[in-house]
Amino acid sequence: PAFSLFIFTIARDPLRIIILIAGAFFWLVSLLLSSLIWFIAVKASDPQDEQLQKGLLIFGVMFSVLLQEAFRFLYYKLLRKAIEGLVALSEDGCSPISIQQMAYVAGVGFGLMSGAFSMINLLADSLGPGTVGIHGDSQLYFLTSAFMTMVLIFLHTFWGILFFHGCEHRRWWEIAAVVIMHLTVSGLSFCNPLYVGSLVPSYLLMVAAAAWAYLLSGGSAQNLRRFLLCKC
User: Fold this and answer.
1) So where are the chain's domains?
2) What are the helix and strand counts (H, E) for the chain?
3) Quick one: how far is CA 127 from the chain centroid?
4) Which of 43, 85, 86, 173 shows a CA-CA span of 20 to 30 A to 184?
5) How much of the chain, in percent, has pLDDT values that exceed 90?
6) Is 5 exposed, middle or buried (0-12, 13-18, 19+ CB in 10 A)?
């Protein structure tokens, strides 16, 4: 999905490509910092204490989510300054790209890098040793991981739109909603290997976030109906 979004909506505009790459970089830095904190915490703790290690894993996931959203806010601030600079340099006093378009492209950048890392981890697991499901566990690990990666890519895109809209209009409850949804989806991963318990709620949240982002972007039920019916 990230490749499709890039080809059809971003690839033809050099400015959008720059914003996409910068967004992916911001997500990567947030992952690096959260991984570093988690690594230090694990090394400083007792590796034989399973309860403690599980608690550190939960802490690492939640801390990573909060750090990602903090970097999303920093990226918004950076793009806001960039818009002011573009307006100052333009001849007509208008920015060549709107904040809504920046929010979408930045969200795709976050989702693209998140999906890439999920895919790399999945491919690393597929190299072995061992066979999925050999001890009676679910054999749907790779399939469900692929679906989870897809939903995270779309969610990051929608979260980018919602988050930037909240920052732009000082609606802090929208920002809080994004953080809560992100924490919820990440927390649902602890339901595995009960994959239904993580996939179904995540996709329901994705549909809700998509509808919300569509309405905030100026969409309407009439426009959606005309699109589905292929009417101009």
Assistant:
1) 1-128+135-220
2) 8, 0
3) 26
4) 43
5) 34
6) buried
